[in-house]
Amino acid sequence: MSAQPNADEESQAQPLLDPSLHRSLSNVTSQVAIVGSNVCPIESLDYEIYENDFFKQDWRSRGKVQIFQYIFVKWLLCFLIGLIVSLIGFCNNLAVENLAGVKFVITSNMMLVKRYGMAFLVFFSSNFVLTLFASIITAFIAPAAAGSGIPEVKAYLNGVDAPGIFTLKTLLVKIVGSITAVSSSLLIGKAGPMVHTGACVAALLGQGGSRKYGLTWRWLRYFKNDRDRRDFVTCGSAAGIAASFRAPVGGVLFSLEEMASWYALLWRCFFTTAVVAIMLRALIDVCLSGKCGLFGTGGLIMFDVTSQNTTYHIKDVPPVLVLGVIGGLLGSLYNFLLEKVLRIYSYIYGKKPIYKIILACSISVFTSCLLFGLPWLASCQPCPIDASEACPTIGRSGNYKKFQCPPGHYNDLASLIFNTNDDAIKNLFSKDTDSEFQYSSILIFFATCFFLSIFSYGIVAPAGLFVPVIVTGASYGRFVGMLVGSHSNLNHGLFAVLGAASLLGGSMRMTVSLCVIILELTNNLLLLPLIMVVLLVSKTVADAFNGNVYDIIMKLKGFPYLEAHAEPYMRQLTVEDVVTGPLQLFNVIEKVENIVHVLRTTGHHGFPVIDERSHSESPVLFGLVLRAHLIVLLRKKAFLTTAVRADSDAFRHFSAMDFTKRGSGNGDKIEDIELTEEEMEMFIDLHPFCNSSPYTVVETMSLAKALILFREVGLRHLLVIPKISNRSPVVGILTRHDFMPEHILGVHPLLVRSRWKRIRFQLPRFLKLF
Predict the structure, then answer these.
(1) Where is the chain membrane-spanning (predicted)?
(2) Which site from 146, 233, 436, 607 is most exposed, i.e. has the minimal number of CB atoms within 10 Å?
(3) What is the pTM of this model?
(4) In 3D, which of 207, 66, 53, 60 has the Cα closest to residue 654?
(5) Is residue 177 included in any domain, yes or no?
(6) Best CA proximity match to 235, nearest among 257, 195, 268, 196
(7) Does 326 share its domain with 471?
(8) Over 50: is that where the pLDDT of 371 sits?
(9) Which pLDDT belongs to residue 296?
(10) Total structural domains in the chain?
(11) Which pLDDT belongs to residue 8?
(12) Burial class (CB in 10 A: 0-12, 13-18, 19+), 711
């Protein structure tokens, strides 16, 4: 057994958001990343089926009833995920509309009697208290609930396990914090937090029971593995989008296009989102009877933006193409500025939680002053004679806010700013309102939304990007529609829809899922060709400048995300060029003292097991044993007095539950195990507990091919074996860290220079095409 550790476990990496934060961590063997608003050590997930003798015997003991039970319970849990997420989504919207609605009603009533100072005080103080509450519970109770949660869930589905992202505390803080933060008039959305909420619900249901709370039924243990949890989390994220936009098909496509790294869950995801759609339809019918207070017909959860006889001709295509180009440019600029702002915020996040709360409250103060002050810059407009609703709007949401205007007039900028984000989108998407807004009001609203959404996202509170991007894109889309005017058959509301699609495509770089979400959101199938064109153009333009906003945030947070494609320089390297060693090896029958020493001195999670007693002249690779399984063997004290192979009775000391993976709780640690000197001199037979068929690659395989295998199968450890048989049976172990560009270019710095040479050579040829 070698005395030196290897790089089996992911080496320590620094999150780009704050390179100094990792210094205080005691865990120096695991990679670290910013989870929510805190720096935490992270590990990899293992989607490989661990085929050892104990596993095979357990599966052979299952009858047809147990197999049916497994399949039935899995579908039942998908149904429960859809049911619970739809209820949470509905209650979220109900709470936000009523909480924010009461605030706007009280403020508007004071404006009617010209008590402007008191109106501002109510507006300011309510926003401040709501933001303060959201930031306090997030900073002190569940820091992992900060932000949208989509980068964390996306990293999890790629195989990165971050602590605390799916706990019950995170779920509760995510729900309550999202309601209060969105109600505080911050320019943030609730769609991203709903994706995280759905994933939390799915992870908790699919955790396979809890020993702490006595939920350890036999049939629940079948889901105590990374593969089933991944399936449930994917369904939960799809349900979250479906509950946010009432878009079941869009939710399925979003989870597959943006979130999941594996695509074998289409049918179960569709079933889950169908449950969400049916439940929302039933709950919205209750609100239509007037039993939901200020919720009305359901906020964003009930976006029904239709247009009668939507027709367009070839002359309408050029303005749509312009919208796509603008969306791509603005989307890439949005991502660039957001990255810079998050880097600035990271210096504050490196300090005590109180500084994070002060930052959130400062953003709230600035936002409240801006939202209350800007409508005073707009001139009052006379109410249209043929208005489709009451004008001016008094004491409720609507298109015609009175604000400070005299009777019979309305403030068009207040109709957008002095409203919830959902109502602002409705006003921008509304039909037959081409003369409602002034050019200056739309431009002011666009600039306000664009910059406020960037500064608001990084606060220590649940905050999404979907709705702010929709609001911002709809505002400049409406502005383009006003410029085009009568030269197009499309009304201004439809231009707003296309503008929202273009900025979503330019920022988030999704196409199919966004197209379906917008169609389901607006209930207007006739816009399909135009939305497709806008999304394709905006994504193409934006891809020339930077990446997807969620990929940028994941990189800033330090998540080791494996892309679906290999970098060109990986074709020039073999796995031997990046693997590090020497290895920690175990014999099939190993001394307890050696196992304890290795576990206490390293943080590795997988160890090759060799057989030196085989008929071969040199040792041969027998398999791979996990750290968690070794700890179980030590805890159960499955020891032998002599170095001989154990008989089949060894299985009687264990149950399948002993080797299942823990849920959100902490697993056993080697420091908690106490052994006597006599026990340390005993032996453990690793034969029944080793994965005897681990994935292996020969040392001459290209790194690109190894990456594809590693990602597609969902591995945590990939053994590298020699090409020549008379050498050591294992050359090294590849982990997620070994495929990261930062690690590869750090080991081979000359590749950086060659990459720049290739770019400098290809760039002039690329420019000649234009």
Answers:
(1) 67-95, 116-146, 166-188, 232-254, 260-280, 292-314, 320-337, 357-378, 442-472, 493-519, 525-545
(2) 436
(3) 0.88
(4) 53
(5) yes
(6) 268
(7) yes
(8) yes
(9) 54
(10) 3
(11) 41
(12) buried
Q: What are the start-end ranges of the H helices in 184-218?
A: 191-205
CATH number of the domain that 360 lies in?
1.10.3080.10
Range of the domain at 338: 318-557
Tell which residue, 451, 448, 362, has the closest CA to residue 135.
362
Containing 79, the helix (H) or strand (E) segment is helix 64-112
Write the CATH number for 583. 3.10.580.10
Which residue matches tokens 């357990």? 58
Query: Around 360, how many Cα atoms within 13 Å sit in the side-chain half-sphere?
Result: 36
**Where among 557, 576, 597 does a domain terminate?**
557
Q: What span, in angstroms and rounded, lies between the C-alpha atoms of 88 and 379?
A: 41
What is the amino acid identity at position 91? C
Structure tokens at 400: 């015609």
Nearest to 281 by CA among 86, 93, 425, 422: 86
pLDDT digits over 529-561, tens only?
899 999 999 999 999 999 899 999 988 888 888
Instruction: Sort 476 into a burial class: Cβ within 10 Å, 0-12 / 13-18 / 19+.
Output: buried
User: Per the structure block, which two tokens stand in for 125?
Assistant: 């103080």
- Specify if 133 maps to a domain: yes
What residue has token string 């594996």? 262
Residue labelled with tokens 């509304």: 430
With respect to residue 382, please indicate whether it lies within any of the assigned structural domains.
Answer: yes
Q: Which amino acid is at 592?
A: V
Q: Is 191 exposed, middle or buried (0-12, 13-18, 19+ CB in 10 A)?
A: buried
